[in-house]
Design brief:
The structure holds 2 protein chains of 2 kinds. By secondary structure, chain A is an alpha+beta fold. Chain A contains 7 helices and 7 strands; from the N terminus they run αααβαααββββββα. Helices cover 72% and strands 0% of the residues of chain B. Chain B folds into 2 domains: 112 residues, RNA polymerase sigma factor, region 2, helix turn helix motif (Rna Polymerase Sigma Factor, Chain: A, Orthogonal Bundle); 65 residues, Arc Repressor Mutant, subunit A (Orthogonal Bundle), CATH 1.10.10.10. Classes of the chains: A alpha+beta, B mainly alpha.
Chain lengths: 230, 186
């Protein structure tokens, strides 16, 4: 029975030989149970793909919303900041995008490996995307000594036992430092649902990535401080 | 084993007048088309109507399909053209002019309301959640197939395993999901 159904599954995917094709069609013709199973394969496929489309529509929403508030950003942030809209939310599985589980990480990698997903990288640089994935996948805390005091927005304090995390009691900010700048010359930032991601090139050639539910109104002080640091 | 042919064999059989091949194609693409048309028309009733008319048109026009695009792309194009025609005049009036089921000696397979509901309901989330808990190899193979549209051969290369294993894993995923759907009465 399983062999027959496996053949139907392969038929559904168009991955059968001539003989198997004919056998599977005969099975569908004669066996209503097989037909029902085949229908369910089709429904499951639709459910899977619709879920993927829902994620794509999230991207569209982000694009739409961010485009509308883009002029405000220009006023709020320094002239050095530019807006880059990416597909990060496309791969968001959970509400908290920074708590990427191993499973969703795999989906992340899987999704990014598809041509379709790549085509949706709007104005974004693959290196940057991969950098962000690397950060999200990384569970390694960062040495708090590497974080300078003037990087931390006013009112934020380190979270105990989490040297890379800072909070003002309401918002959380995570910092990540890389010894590469990925060609980023100006501050770039992204919005992903309620979270923001800031890529801040440091003058010493490193890249500071700050992320969390910290809006530009708060982050701009940090960016300003870093940009004007001698 | 594992010969990649997509829908080519199915199309050839439909062109040869094989009704079970046609029915197989309808079963395969009806949920996807219906879902797309519901989004397009914002009406389940209109979408179902258009869906049926689309497949009738597909049956009539299959000999004009040259395989230059994916089969579903071609089907979807027909559906959208039909929808545009419907919307350009009174829907009720137009429906009288379009194809009737009498045009073909064939009973259209249909998805029942609960299944149609499934397409547009939150129950899909349940299924999706269930998929997240599948064995990692099974889920990866299945996701690469369903979301990324990878061929078995490509998946085998990515997962560094034989094509037969890929085929088994994808089937196993579907089998488990079907069991879950039936168990949960979704």
């Amino acid at each position: 029975m399983n062999n027959k159904l496996e053949k139907l599954s392969a038929l559904y995917d168009g991955e059968v030989s001539d003989n198997e094709f004919n056998e599977a069609l005969d099975d569908l013709k004669l066996n209503s149970h097989s037909k029902d199973i085949f229908k369910q394969f089709a429904l499951i496929s639709e459910v899977m793909q619709r879920k993927s489309l829902e994620n794509k529509s999230k991207l569209s929403n982000i694009f739409s919303i961010t485009s509308k508030i883009n002029p405000i950003f220009t006023n709020v942030l320094t002239a050095a900041a530019t807006v880059l809209i990416t597909t990060f939310t496309l791969y968001q599985i959970d509400d908290d995008r920074f708590a990427v589980s191993k499973e969703s990480t795999l989906q992340l990698s899987s999704a990014l490996s598809s041509d379709e997903a790549k085509n949706q990288l709007i104005n974004s640089d693959q290196n940057i995307v991969e950098h962000m994935i690397h950060i999200m996948q990384s569970n390694q805390p960062h040495d708090s000594d590497m974080v300078l005091d003037d990087w931390i927005p006013v009112g934020f304090q380190p979270v105990k036992n989490k040297p890379h995390q800072f909070t003002n009691g309401q918002n959380n900010l995570y910092l990540h430092i890389e010894n590469k700048q990925l060609g980023i010359k100006k501050v770039k930032y992204y919005k992903a649902n309620q979270n923001w991601i800031y890529l801040i090139p440091l003058k010493d050639g490193r890249l500071l990535t700050a992320y969390g539910d910290v809006p530009p109104e708060i982050a701009k002080r940090m960016i300003y401080s870093i940009n004007n640091r001698k | 084993m594992g010969k990649v042919n997509g829908d080519k064999m199915l199309v050839n059989e439909i062109k040869a007048g094989n009704q079970i091949a046609f029915e197989t194609m309808v079963i395969k693409y009806q949920p996807k088309l219906l879902s797309s048309l519901i989004s397009y028309t914002k009406s389940i009733e209109q979408a179902e109507d258009l869906c049926q008319k689309t497949f009738i048109r597909v049956w009539q026009k299959i000999n004009t399909f040259r395989g230059e695009s994916a089969l579903f792309t071609w089907i979807y194009r027909i559906a959208i053209n039909l929808a545009k025609n419907e919307f350009s005049s009174s829907y009720a009036k137009a429906s009288k002019k379009t194809d009737s089921l009498d045009d073909m000696d064939y009973e259209m397979p249909s998805f029942t309301s609960p299944e149609a509901d499934l397409i547009g309901s939150q129950l899909a989330d349940k299924i999706h959640s269930y998929i997240q808990n599948l064995d990692i190899d099974i889920k990866t193979a299945f996701t690469l197939r369903e979301i990324d549209g990878r061929s078995y051969e490509e998946i085998a290369r990515i997962m560094e395993c034989p094509i037969g294993t890929v085929r088994s894993r994808i089937f196993r995923a579907r089998q488990l999901i079907v069991e879950f759907i039936n168990k949960e009465n979704i």
